[in-house]
Every structure is written in structure tokens, then in C-alpha cells.
Design brief:
Layout (H helix, E strand, L loop, with lengths): L12 E13 L2 E7 L11 E7 L5 E7 L5 E3 L2 E9 L7 H6 L6 E8 L13 E6 L3 H14 L5 E7 L8 H10 L3 E7 L16 H7 L8 E7 H14 L6 E6 L4
Parallel strand pairs: 8-9, 8-11, 9-10, 11-12
Antiparallel strand pairs: 1-2, 1-7, 2-6, 3-4, 3-7, 5-6
């Protein structure tokens, strides 16, 4: 793996082809796309994916890039993780119809605010709600790929244990990635042996599992709008400067 520099022409549409898919949960899959002329990206950036029907109708959606660019036999590869939206236009196609070798248009990389640069040494706290884990996983993977020593803490809120995206990899990274701590918050069903009751993320979770504000961590929060607003308010209330709390939110379109 290699971390590369962001594009200077992010508005250009690239033709990508699907070369691999991985099932992450019953409703989420990771798609590995090969893009021969991909210019590179930074952790936290996203792409637009555009579909075109035979009659010319087009639909596009934004998806976070899930990790560093990887060199493949046909050129650079990137990963996006798609969460199915049942009445969506794009996500059901990408999960159910899009097949190995099929082309799709991709534009990016996009976004210059919600990014982490591996040369940063400040502690990092990541707070994810549901599929909001995707851009934060890109930061965790880039930390590993570049050998960064920046300490990371991740708080990951999900409905049930079965909804944890990248569950196996996160278990490995807790074991293998020195300086990475992970805490889960379950809102509907907790695993056997988990202490406490299912609940929505609150002050105690952020205060217990995050970094204290006097360490001046960089904070990234990603998830549904209500989740992001709640967590951002909690962090600012604890004394974290708002300029060091970066947020990214998503709605129900898919």
C-alpha cells in the first residue's frame, strides 16, 4: 500500500471497473475499483459514483474512500463501502447488479476539510455512527500503512454486533496496531458479556473513551446528521475547541 497525493483535477470523471467485492454486513459491501489513471487521495476524502441508464438517465451518489490506494495488476485500486438504502437508486444496483469487470464512472477525490494527514502527530479521536466508520477506517488503515505513531482512539456506535462494518479487521487491529484503542456503543442489542445496557451515545461514552481536551486531539465525527450534531455538541461541551472537531454527515439518499 501507499499513501499518495490528492488530485489536482478532482472534477474529472474516471472510468473504473469492479475487480473485487467483500460482504461486510448483511447490508454493506466493499467494492474494490480499478482506475488506471487515478491521481491519488488522502484519508477522509470521498468520490462521486455515477450510473447511466440505457435511456441516458443518470444518478450519482457520494461514497467515502475506505483506505489508501493500492497497486493492482491493471493499475491503482481504491475501495468504497456501500450501505444499502432499500428505496435508493444507486446502492441497490451496486450491491445486487454491479458485477466483476463492469464499468462505472467515478469522480474525485473530493473534500479537503475532513482529511487526516499521516504526518500529523497529534492524538486522534474518531467517532463513528453506522456506516460513518468508512472514512475513519481509511484513516486507521493509512496510519498502519505509513507507520504513523499518532495515537488513535475510535468510538464506534452501531445498532447490534451484526452491524459492525470491518468487524474482523477491527479485531485484528486492536491486537496488532499499537496505539489504537476501540470502544463500541450498541444502541439496540449488545453482545453477550458486554457490560451495560444498549443506549445511544452520550457524555459518559465520549468522556470515558475519547481523549481529554487538554491533549488537543484532532477529532473526526461521521454518521447520520442527528448523531454527528449530538457528538459534536458533547465534545465542545467537554472543552474541545470546535476548530479541532471535524464533522461529516450523511442523509438517507442512496
Amino acid at each position: 500500500m501507499a499513501t499518495s497525493t490528492p488530485s489536482r483535477a478532482p472534477n474529472r470523471w474516471h472510468v473504473a471497473r469492479l475487480v473485487e467485492r467483500r460482504v461486510e454486513t448483511p447490508t454493506a459491501q466493499t467494492l474494490v475499483l480499478e482506475l488506471p489513471d487515478w491521481p491519488g487521495h488522502l484519508p477522509g476524502q470521498h468520490v462521486d459514483v455515477r450510473l447511466t441508464a440505457p435511456d441516458g438517465y443518470q444518478a450519482a451518489r457520494s461514497y467515502s474512500i475506505a483506505g489508501p490506494v493500492v497497486d493492482g495488476p491493471g493499475g491503482p485500486r481504491i475501495e468504497v463501502t456501500v450501505q444499502r438504502v432499500h428505496d435508493g437508486e444507486v446502492s441497490p444496483y451496486l450491491i445486487d447488479v454491479f458485477a466483476d469487470g463492469d464499468p462505472v464512472e467515478v469522480r474525485g477525490p473530493l473534500g479537503g476539510w475532513f482529511i487526516w494527514r499521516p504526518e500529523e502527530t497529534a492524538p486522534v479521536q474518531l467517532v463513528a455512527g453506522g456506516s460513518g466508520i468508512v472514512p475513519l477506517m481509511a484513516m486507521i488503515r493509512s496510519r498502519r500503512a505509513t507507520g504513523s505513531k499518532a495515537p488513535f482512539r475510535l468510538i464506534y456506535s452501531v445498532r447490534t454486533p451484526g452491524d459492525v462494518i470491518y468487524a474482523d479487521e477491527l479485531r485484528r487491529r486492536i491486537r496488532d496496531d499499537f496505539g489504537l484503542d476501540i470502544a463500541y456503543v450498541y444502541t439496540r442489542e449488545a453482545p453477550e458479556g458486554w457490560r451495560g445496557e444498549p443506549h445511544r451515545i452520550g457524555l459518559a461514552d465520549v468522556n470515558t473513551h475519547g481523549w481529554p481536551p487538554d491533549l488537543q486531539p484532532l477529532t473526526y465525527v461521521c454518521g447520520p446528521t442527528g448523531f454527528v450534531e449530538t457528538v459534536a455538541d458533547l465534545l465542545v461541551g467537554l472543552g474541545h475547541p470546535s476548530r479541532r472537531v471535524k464533522t461529516e454527515r450523511f442523509g438517507p439518499t442512496g
